[in-house]
Amino acid sequence: GMGRFLSTMGGVGMLTQLELLLPGGQLASGDGTLVTLDDPETFTREAAKGAHICWQPGESEGSILLRQSVPVVRDGETLAVLRGILNLEHIPHMVFAQEYGQEMRLYIFERESGQFLLDTWHDTLTDRASLWDRKSAKGYSVEAFNQDIDQGRTGNTVFCSATTGEEFYASYAPVEVEDWMVMVSVPDRVVFAN
């Protein structure tokens, strides 16, 4: 039935699981269980938001889950909210560039709050303020980087790693959903290896 459908579909694409939020605060999960949530108004709130994406802390320390919610509507009535869950820890395995492999660092952060949602370089998720004390290479500045981020602009920078002392070439750009930025960085020894 429903559980079999959700568990089968949960592995499609980048989603790690699917769940169905039902009226009265019930949640059908991918393993077929039906649980009643602590807050019976969860369904009403989620349905009122329409299709949206949000994030929440994951179960393991430092992990972030993205949740995409889409109301299931028939004859103008919302019957359920289908939610796809993506554990951001799985993204690096899907997107690392062939040229750079594990040497590429991937970051996703909220533009306004500066909160990192994904950081494949550091062990803990901090915020953008942790980049303010980094030294920039000649011709680049932390101020210009932060101005680009504040204004949601695409750009490039070169900064010195506080961990290794290496210079890292970084590119960043806004993501078209939410208020997020994505940034990738590669050490100069890899960029200029050829």
Notable traits:
194 residues; 18% helix; 5-stranded antiparallel sheet; alpha+beta
Per DSSP, the total helix count is 5
What characterizes the major β-sheet? 6 strands, antiparallel
The termini sit apart by 55 Å
Rg result: 20 Å
Number of strands: 11
Which bin fits the share of residues in helices? 10-25%
Average of the residue pLDDT scores: 79
Strand content: 35-45%
Structural class estimated from helices and strands:
alpha+beta
What is the H-and-E element order?
HEEEHEEEHEEHEEEH
Spatial order of the strands forming the largest sheet: 3-2-1-6-5-4
Show unreliable segments. Answer: 1-12
Principal-axis shape equals: elongated
Describe the structure.
With 194 residues, the chain is of the alpha+beta class. Helix content is 18%, strand content 37%. It has helices at residues 2-9, 42-49, 91-95, 142-150, 188-191; strands at residues 17-22, 26-28, 34-36, 52-57, 64-74, 77-87, 105-110, 116-119, 155-160, 167-174, 180-187. The strands form two sheets. A six-stranded antiparallel sheet has the order 3-2-1-6-5-4, sandwiched between helices. Strands 8-7-11-10-9 form a five-stranded antiparallel sheet. The longest helix is centred in the last third of the chain and has 9 residues, at 142-150. The radius of gyration is 20 Å and the shape is elongated. It starts with a helix and ends with a helix. The model is unreliable at 1-12 (pLDDT under 50).
SSE topology:
Elements lengths: L1 H8 L7 E6 L3 E3 L5 E3 L5 H8 L2 E6 L6 E11 L2 E11 L3 H5 L9 E6 L5 E4 L22 H9 L4 E6 L6 E8 L5 E8 H4 L3
Antiparallel strand pairs: 1-2, 1-6, 2-3, 4-5, 5-6, 7-8, 7-11, 9-10, 10-11
